[in-house]
Automatic annotation (TrEMBL):
<dbReference type="GO" id="GO:0000287">
    <property type="term" value="F:magnesium ion binding"/>
</dbReference>
<feature type="active site" description="Proton acceptor; specific for (R)-substrate epimerization">
    <location>
        <position position="154"/>
    </location>
</feature>
<dbReference type="Pfam" id="PF13378">
    <property type="entry name" value="MR_MLE_C"/>
</dbReference>
<feature type="domain" description="Mandelate racemase/muconate lactonizing enzyme C-terminal">
    <location>
        <begin position="136"/>
        <end position="225"/>
    </location>
</feature>
<protein>
    <recommendedName>
        <fullName>Dipeptide epimerase</fullName>
        <ecNumber>5.1.1.-</ecNumber>
    </recommendedName>
</protein>
<keyword id="KW-0413">Isomerase</keyword>
<dbReference type="InterPro" id="IPR034593">
    <property type="entry name" value="DgoD-like"/>
</dbReference>
<feature type="binding site">
    <location>
        <position position="204"/>
    </location>
    <ligand>
        <name>Mg(2+)</name>
    </ligand>
</feature>
<dbReference type="InterPro" id="IPR036849">
    <property type="entry name" value="Enolase-like_C_sf"/>
</dbReference>
<keyword id="KW-0479">Metal-binding</keyword>
<keyword id="KW-0460">Magnesium</keyword>
<dbReference type="InterPro" id="IPR013341">
    <property type="entry name" value="Mandelate_racemase_N_dom"/>
</dbReference>
<feature type="binding site">
    <location>
        <position position="229"/>
    </location>
    <ligand>
        <name>Mg(2+)</name>
    </ligand>
</feature>
<dbReference type="Pfam" id="PF02746">
    <property type="entry name" value="MR_MLE_N"/>
</dbReference>
<feature type="binding site">
    <location>
        <position position="178"/>
    </location>
    <ligand>
        <name>Mg(2+)</name>
    </ligand>
</feature>
<dbReference type="InterPro" id="IPR029065">
    <property type="entry name" value="Enolase_C-like"/>
</dbReference>
<feature type="active site" description="Proton acceptor; specific for (S)-substrate epimerization">
    <location>
        <position position="251"/>
    </location>
</feature>
Length: 340
């Protein structure tokens, strides 16, 4: 089998700002896994916070490509296991290849991936639409220009409650908030009571990733469920989050793809924790992989394609009515030819 790499620059519709980062373009890498007849696709974006570049992803994928030259493919999980030593420092590249392997595998079986897993699409959660940090006026405008059922509001400013109050005046939609490590213990507990009055569903990662003591206190006194994101990177973190968070937000690129995500979902369920899967501002390639997992989870954040103006692929489609799967096997992805 062969690996081919395709680079793209995704353009964000709005300059995107969260508590620790901001950007208006997002470089992304599409990995194609091919046996010469069938190609599977997966995606990983570059990420300064995690030190992920095109160069270091290409480097490990070249090593993986050497192993795959005369590899006898059986399952994506086996491939993940056989290559895990190559990828130990680069979960993003590992994720892109793992997604491609699932796409390839389901196409070989002649089914969409959710059918390979016997999932029922009728009960899957709908994605939220993210509103990045901006002036209150601009955040209200972003909400008004995108009528939606569930919004994820990025917080971590000196006037967070004012932001949510202003947005609440314009919609009865479900709200969830993400402080991206921007708050302290008392602030989180205080905000949880204020935000509950504003019909917020949960708070994502209020405090720094390693503040486990603080999280324990928040867990005991919060008025709203708390979901881990930056505190839940890899498989071993799920157990650590138990008793500190009510649920976890799994990012495929941070944990290394679909294979470990399936194990993390299972572990969280055993611990009776809520499960969310989130995206990293990727195209329809990566979010299609998330969509196939969605019937297994409680909440999904896969609005990447809605936030970019130059999606590079046709895949799972998102609208206010819900999620539409294309009538194609695998992940259902087709790279748009003019960009390929
Ligand atoms: Mg988050």
């Amino acid at each position: 089998m062969d690996i081919y790499l395709h680079r793209y620059l995704l353009k964000l519709k709005h300059h995107f700002k969260i508590a620790r980062d901001e950007r208006s373009v997002q470089p992304t890498l599409i990995v194609e896994l091919s046996d010469g007849q069938i190609s599977g696709y997966g995606e990983a974006t570059t990420n300064t916070y995690y030190g992920i570049t095109y160069e270091n992803m290409s480097e490990v994928l070249a090593k993986a490509g050497d192993t795959l030259k005369d590899y006898s493919f059986s399952t994506p999980a086996q491939l993940w296991e056989d290559l895990k030593d190559i990828f130990h420092s680069n979960s993003f590249a590992q994720c892109a290849l793992d997604e491609a392997a699932y796409d390839y595998y389901a196409q070989k079986l002649g089914k969409p991936l959710y059918q390979v897993w016997n999932l029922d699409l009728s009960t899957m959660p709908q994605t939220n639409y993210t509103i990045g940090i901006d002036t209150i006026e601009n955040m209200v405008n972003k909400l008004k220009e995108m009528p939606w059922n569930i919004y994820k509001i990025k917080l971590g400013t000196p006037h967070d409650i004012e932001i949510v109050k202003a947005l609440r005046k314009h919609t009865q939609a479900r709200f969830r908030v993400d402080a991206n490590c921007g708050w302290g213990v008392e602030e989180t507990i205080r905000n949880s009571y204020e935000l509950r009055k504003l019909d917020v569903e949960f708070i994502e990662q209020p405090m720094k990733a390693d503040n486990w003591e603080g999280m324990k206190e928040v867990y005991q006194h919060t008025a709203l469920p708390i979901i881990a994101d930056e505190s839940c990177i890899r498989e071993s973190d799920v157990e650590k989050c138990f008793g500190h968070f009510h649920g976890i937000n799994i990012k495929l690129m941070k944990c290394g793809g679909i294979t470990p995500t399936l194990r993390m979902i299972q572990k969280a369920r055993q611990l009776q924790m809520k499960v969310m899967v989130g995206c990293m501002t990727e195209s329809s390639v990566g979010t299609s992989a998330i969509a196939h997992l969605a019937p297994m989870i409680d909440y999904v954040d896969m609005d990447g394609p809605l936030l970019i103006s130059n999606d590079i692929a046709d895949g799972v489609k998102l609208s206010i009515e819900g999620t539409a799967f294309p009538p194609r096997n695998g992940l259902g992805i087709v790279l748009l030819p003019n960009l390929h």
